[in-house]
Amino acid sequence: xxxxxxxxxxAAPMLHARVAVEFPAVVPRPLVFPRDHGAHPDYRTEWxxxxxxxxxxxxxxxxQITFFRTRTEIDPANPSRFAAxxxxxxxxxxADPAHGSLLKDERIARAGFGLAEASEADTDVRLDRWxxxxxxxxxxxxxxxxxxxxxxxxxxxxxxLLLQGEDGFSRKGPHxxxxxxxxxxxxxxxxxxLARNGAxxxxxxxxWLDHEWSSTLLDPEAAGWDWVGMNLDDGAALTAFQIRRRGxxxxxxxYASLREPGASRPRLFARHEVEFTPLQPWTxxxxxxxxxxxxxxxxxxxxxxxxxxxxxQELDSRATTGAVYWEGxxxxxxxxxxxxxxxxxxxxxxxxxxx
Length: 355
Hints:
By secondary structure, the protein is mostly beta strands. It has one domain (about 30-345): AttH-like fold. The chain is built from 1 helix and 23 strands. The chain has one helix spanning about 1-10; strands spanning about 45-55, 60-70, 85-95, 100-110, 115-120, 125, 130-135, 140-145, 150-155, 160-165, 170, 180-195, 200-215, 220-230, 235-245, 250-260, 265-270, 275-285, 290-300, 300-310, 315, 325-335, 335-345. About 45% of the residues are buried.
């Protein structure tokens, strides 16, 4: 009981004077590793986001683990240890077709007190007993003892880092200031232990990691985004996203990259070369939002379709991030044939997203 009370105190909002906090701009610069694997606490928002598929029987499972770091607008000169200048948030979810909806859990706490931390030296993010870190050999380790399930895994790189955009400088809108620093680690080989209902299973699979940080990510007219990260069966890696305009839903900005097997750099596609077209609508019985859970994706001269593992992969995180999003394990098809698998993420279908 005392521990739960302390967690609630550490996570609860507190009244502090707010000032005009200055967040650094995202400008083109070389990313430097391992430093840029770590946290960037001066920037407004940051996330380490890993999604993947586990090869279970009789059906495969999807899984997600995301750690967020957010710098608030509380006066950085406030000396109180209780001043929530940095928040750490964590989400975990299992997509099990037999369950029919996501098994999910989330956490939030202010940084400090040995409860929530994000290292600046390398990837090492912790929130209570949840942790996600990068080892010296480059592999990622995660422990997430969630409500209803417990997930542990190691994810080992099989390919070099994939720098998105212009060597890690990723435009997100029509103005240069609307950008993030962004890299991916596709084609991760996963060894996992998933425990549910008193039984544990050891499973293998593949995963995709995104690490992104920014101060001004979206245009004021943006409602949200549609994004895919797909590990292709031949070893290629496909990233694509569009930013949708409020009201009309038309494309405000778009981008894609495709790194072929064995290539050191991806081929980049401009806004006019990327198109998302809804194929299958699904209406949530909880939020009443209608999500296009299957989409047709045109990237240059190729056309792909996404197909969800199942429709109800909506995640309501308004208690932590303030957003509702659809985070769906999905197959990637080309000419009706499976060519890969990964995740489709969508935001802004309940209300315009705020970061």
